[in-house]
Amino acid sequence: MSRPLDIxxxxxxxxxxxxxxxxxxxxxxxxxxxxxHQPALSxxxxxAAIIDLLIDRRVxxxxxxxxxxxxxxxxxxxxxxxxxxxxxxxxxxLPLPAILDRVAGGMYERTRGGLVHRGVLVEKPLRVLGVxxxxxxxxxxxxIAIRNxxxxxxxxxxxxxxxxxxxxxxVLLLALGMQDCLILPREEADRGLNLVLQQMxxxxxPEHRLLAHxxxxxxxxxxxxxxxLATSAMS
Length: 235
Prior knowledge:
The protein has 235 residues and is of the alpha+beta class. The chain has one domain (4-228): yeast vps74-n-term truncation variant fold (Orthogonal Bundle), CATH 1.10.3630.10. The protein is 60% helix and 13% strand. It has helices spanning 4-10, 16-23, 38-55, 80-91, 96-104, 107-118, 142-156, 164-176, 186-202, 206-234, and strands spanning 25-26, 33-34, 59-62, 65-68, 94-95, 121-128, 131-139. β6 (121-128) and β7 form a beta hairpin. α2 packs antiparallel against α3 and α8 (164-176) packs across α9. The longest helix has 29 residues, at 206-234. The protein starts with a helix and ends with a helix.
């Protein structure tokens, strides 16, 4: 029989996109509050979806364009959102800025819907004076966020070795300016995340170096796209 803790662990997000979604919300502020404006977060989630495909070796970057690795591989990943991005890339290679722009629209809602379907997020009625006003979405349990955050912190402080997903989370948090989600002093978070970035840049193992290079390129494209969003909002 599964124990409660085992059941909760089954709900842990595994995709980089899902992990980023969880850490992009503060589970303590009123239960579930976004740390970023949705347009910026949607760009980050789009980048994370591309990184998931990079890690799965389904796509790679050629001159900063996202390209399928095997044109004859028509299999699916098993995740509807990821498969949607893969289907778009199958149609034709797209430069990183273009695919981020194409994919970001609705990415927040699709990711949230998938996590609700899996039971990671649950809909909770919002009541005022006993009157049900609407439903809000919250984590099924705060331990999901705690464990998700701990994986990134352990990687950033050197307790855990490199893995593609943890390294990707570190560079995405830097790109989105989300260091505060680690609940560490800002200087400590910056130092740890930047150390991971430097290690990725310095790796000499050929297959690891190529993947690390591609992940960093996606994170940089996310950073530029979010900066453009902010600039447009101010003009």
